Amino acid sequence: MAHDWPRHDMSFLAGQRLRRTRQTAWSRAMVRETELLPRDLIWPLFVIEGQNERTPIRTMPGVERLSIDLMIGAAREARDAGIPALAIFPNTPDHLRSEDGAEAYNANNLMCRTLAAIKDAVPEIGLIADVALDEYSANGQDGLVRDGEILNDETVEAMVKSALVQAAAGADIIAPSDMMDGRVAAIRRALDAEGHEQVQIMSYAAKYASCFYGPFREAVGSGSRLKGDKRTYQMDFANSDEALREIEQDIAEGADSVMIKPGMPYLDVIRRAKDAFNVPLYAYQVSGEYAMIEMAGAAGAINRDAAVLESLWAFKRAGVNGVLTYYALEMARKLTA
Ligand code: PBG
Description:
Blueprint: H1 25-31, E1 41-48, E2 54-56, E3 64-67, H2 68-80, E4 85-90, H3 110-121, E5 126-131, E6 144-146, E7 149-151, H4 152-169, E8 173-176, H5 183-193, E9 200-207, H6 214-220, H7 241-253, E10 257-261, H8 267-276, E11 281-284, H9 287-298, H10 304-318, E12 322-324, H11 328-336
Parallel strand pairs: 1-3, 1-4, 1-12, 4-5, 5-8, 8-9, 9-10, 10-11, 11-12
Antiparallel strand pairs: 2-3, 6-7
Helix pairs in contact: 2-3, 3-4, 4-5, 9-10
């Protein structure tokens, strides 16, 4: 028996019922405001030394570090799935890590050999090279340290050298992730002087000092080395005006695109950046965000597949051109299937 509910008077809304367009799948499709496509997805990959080597990362279930030969296979899969670019991160062998992180500008380091190998085998995919010293230093800091202080300008000099060997090896996009002041201008000037005018810079422009990088630091082997924190260079999570100043400066210094990182806790910053600047904008759905979704999914707390889709779509709604995400290959395949 149908209840005879009293009908609510909605005449004051002039006939507006927002549920009207949500009634059917075709209508929901018609009014959908944003799209998520394979070309929106950039795939971060971790490389290790060796042949046919793959090692799991305890805090990132489902993600593995790969040796160069296996990276080439991964690059082919990514290209075939419509992913435009890979972001490469090296797990530098312990004996090559040092206080000055000099391995960062060894032209034959693991990173450069990886870039060259992928560029040779899969030239159709873009290669984004992270530039920061933490992947090469003995102390896990992104900058050179003297008497407990992070040295800005000396670090920038080392990063310029690192960017140059990466560009020579085949990097299409240099992505400084260190948050030193002035590094975009310095890298741009050096790239141009060495004939790399076409190499882009994607700056980690607003990068916050965040606990959500924990699993990444295990992946590249810097976490156990790190003493203290990165709060003298990475941003305070209380601020967003300052993020706009960081982005503005990096654009002025010559960045071709800018990134905000982490992702999901900073969607407000993404939206502010989108409204304030006309520049290609990216977000990094970082390792801790990945771990949260995987572990909550495995525990049966949330539907993992639905969470992946919703989280990535949220970035598009917030206004990004693309997302760096460990889900890139899986999602690119699903979105084209
Ligand atoms: C290195 C770097 C970090 C990440 C990307 N580049 C870690 C850090 O700054 O400590 C984090 C990525 C992730 O958590 O997925 N400077």
